[in-house]
Amino acid sequence: MPWGPLGPIGLLVDPMTWRAAPYLLVSGAFGLMWYFVLAITISVSLALAVVWVGVPLVIATMLLWRGGARLERRVLRLAFGLDIADPYRPRPRRGLGAHVRWLMKDPATWRDLGYLLMLLPLGFVEGVLSFMSWMVAGGLLLAPMLYGLQEASGGSGYFVEGWTEAWFAGVCGVPALIGCLYLVRGMAWLHGTLATVLLGGGEEERLRASRARGVDAAEAERRRIERDLHDGAQQRLLSVAVDLGRAQAKFDSDPETVRELIAQAHAGTKAAIAELRNLARGIHPAILSDRGLDAALSGLAARAPIRVDVSVELADRPPAAVESIAYFTVAESLANMAKHSGATEASVTVFRDRRGVVVDVWDNGIGGAAVVPEGGLSGLADRAATIDGVLVVHSPMGGPTFIRAELPCEW
């Protein structure tokens, strides 16, 4: 959970406590809804599976509860400030059978079902305890006011008799409210812990997925370097060798042609050097190693077609791997912005939080950016995953676009 122990005053002013309270009151209703939905859909689809009609319904039901688990992760982020990443294995590129096997063999699918079924008993207990504690605390705190209204109307029936008891109940309401808030905090911690285990997956599973994505990203990068070398610098150097061979053959018989061939070879050599320099910059720019992230990102902003504000708030340099991922996140984001967004201004902010380095890229373009398989943003997500980082893209149609990379590290 993102919040540690607090004193009574901290409990009262901490917004996370008040965000968790309404969720705990209604979590039982969520659990009841999912229990009936899953009980009906699972029983119907399994009953029809014997005649094959239910097979698509079974798959649809599994997708339904995975979607419900995704929604629950977003709700828990709002209620508890709990950031649980989707733990699902990478989706296969094609094939209906491959997709069905992927869906059924992914442990996260069945953990999602377990969480949604657990939500009913857990939510019932949370709802009852929350309702009773809030009623007791509220009744005691409001006792003087309610007794005064009762006296003014001439009615009766409130649980106190006389102003002394009313004020005493009001004073007792303060520790009751504090106890209620501690109860809310404890139930939120318990609920968040269970949700992290079931909805987030185990540490081993996440590390395995992260390593797999890292291997895929490294393999894709190797293929890109091979392709760039073959199609660029290698072809130019081959042309230089041919020109020099022709010049050697004509050295005595045609000096003028030799001069032209040497000039072509010289120009080809310079072009090959430039391409090799650009390729090396794509692997790891020299300015990043020599002068750090601030200077490297400022260089990217200076080459952008629009004004880009850069703010790097890092007291010390992070590890080289984190610097590299942060640099390429900004580079790819600005490149996409220049090609597709139609933005007129952008900003890049890099700062350190309690977990590591956070990179924010914003532009006021038309939006519509998304993480799609084999796309540029997907490659950035894979780079971030190699160090258990996360890439978040928010780009509604019409804009603006906001990209955040959270890169955990230790200095």
UniProtKB/TrEMBL annotation:
SUPFAM superfamilies assigned to the protein according to its UniProt record, in alphabetical order: ATPase domain of HSP90 chaperone/DNA topoisomerase II/histidine kinase
Key words of the record: ATP-binding, Kinase, Membrane, Nucleotide-binding, Phosphoprotein, Transferase, Transmembrane, Transmembrane helix, Two-component regulatory system
Q: Name one Pfam family in it.
A: Sensor
Annotated Signal transduction histidine kinase subgroup 3 dimerisation and phosphoacceptor domain residues: 221-286
Source organism superkingdom:
Bacteria
| Domain spans labelled Putative sensor | 23-199
EC category: transferase
For this UniProt entry, the molecular function terms from Gene Ontology, in alphabetical order, are: kinase activity
Q: What Enzyme Commission number(s) appear in the record?
A: 2.7.13.3
Which reaction is recorded as catalysed by this protein?
ATP + protein L-histidine = ADP + protein N-phospho-L-histidine
Transmembrane segments annotated in the record for this chain: 32-65, 113-146, 166-184
Task: Write the protein's name.
Answer: histidine kinase
